[in-house]
Write a structure and sequence with these properties.
The protein is 25% helix and 31% strand. By secondary structure, the chain is α+β, with helices and mostly antiparallel strands. The chain has one domain (9-281).
């Protein structure tokens, strides 16, 4: 694996959804999440991290050092036990935090190196804070939550055949452009998880491609539209993150109509970045 990153980064990801539900709210009947005060759409950091994990597992399956820690159908204690088995240690509830076990988990699981993990469960492997953090995404404009009735010709039970077609519901957003902002800390990578240059390249690749391998009827048409990266020339950085985020502005071109495509927006990225910062555009 390549060397640990030595530069701080911030990034802005713009992505959109068309006739789909980017992140359903279980407390609202799976309707698309919104900020109830403004009507803007919300997508949680957990949702995007899930897509990053799925992409990494897809492209790095079976490769040492790129296992995924948080995944469906796997108990976390079973993941922790891999570290104990490797060192021939018998897990028990009295095991104290062991840095060797924590190091094993960081070395073998990509999402722990990236996002960190709380592993202080019954099978204790410690706790680490990850260098990669992502804020909640927010739509550029208020969204319209729409519930569409759908029908199907088949039924589940033979005794219901005489009823004919049955009804169902789909929750969608006709269109929305979302903005996510994130951070990569070289300081935490060096001191804690060992997040490497190779890991960083994989993170950028994931952000660009994660929607391409996650299509479903529920999510509709989703695509990453722009990834803007700010690279500092030092580990601690050269200026506050909000200054860099403010350099990415998105203007709506349709004043009288609700936006229905990416072409209804114009993205402006200031090129005159502060000294010590490099602007990188991946899309």
């Amino acid at each position: 694996m390549s060397e640990v990153i030595k530069n701080r980064y911030e990034f802005v990801l713009l992505y959109d959804v068309e006739n789909g539900n980017p992140n359903g709210d279980p407390d609202m009947g799976n309707m698309p999440r919104i900020d109830p005060q403004t009507g803007h759409g919300i997508v949680t950091d957990v949702c995007l991290k899930r897509k990053i994990r799925d992409y990494v597992e897809l492209v790095k399956e079976g490769i040492k050092g790129y296992e995924i820690y948080v995944k469906s159908g796997i108990a976390l204690n079973d993941q922790h036990k891999k570290a104990y088995d490797f060192y021939g240690i018998e897990p028990n509830t009295k095991n104290p935090k062991d840095e060797t076990l924590t190091r094993f988990m960081c070395d073998n699981f990509f999402d722990i190196r990236a996002f960190g993990a709380v592993m202080t469960t019954k099978v204790n492997c410690g706790q680490v804070r990850g260098p990669v953090q992502i804020n909640f995404s927010r739509s550029l404009d208020p969204i319209f939550q729409q519930e569409v009735t759908v029908t199907r010709q088949t039924v589940t039970d033979a005794k219901d055949i005489e009823k004919g077609q049955t009804m169902g519901k789909k929750q969608i957003v006709p269109y929305a452009l979302y903005r996510a902002e994130g951070y990569v800390s070289a300081n935490l990578a060096e001191k804690v998880t060992g997040f490497s240059e190779e890991d960083l390249d994989l993170l950028w690749e994931s952000l660009v491609n994660m929607f391409e391998h996650d299509h479903s009827a529920a999510r509709g048409k989703m695509a990453a539209r722009k990834l803007i990266i700010f690279k500092h020339d030092s580990k601690l950085g050269c200026c506050p993150s909000h200054v860099l985020f403010d350099m990415v502005k998105v203007d709506k071109l349709t004043d009288n109509l609700p936006p229905r495509s990416y072409q209804d927006y114009k993205v402006n990225v200031e090129k005159d970045v502060p000294s010590g910062v490099e602007l990188i555009e991946k899309l």
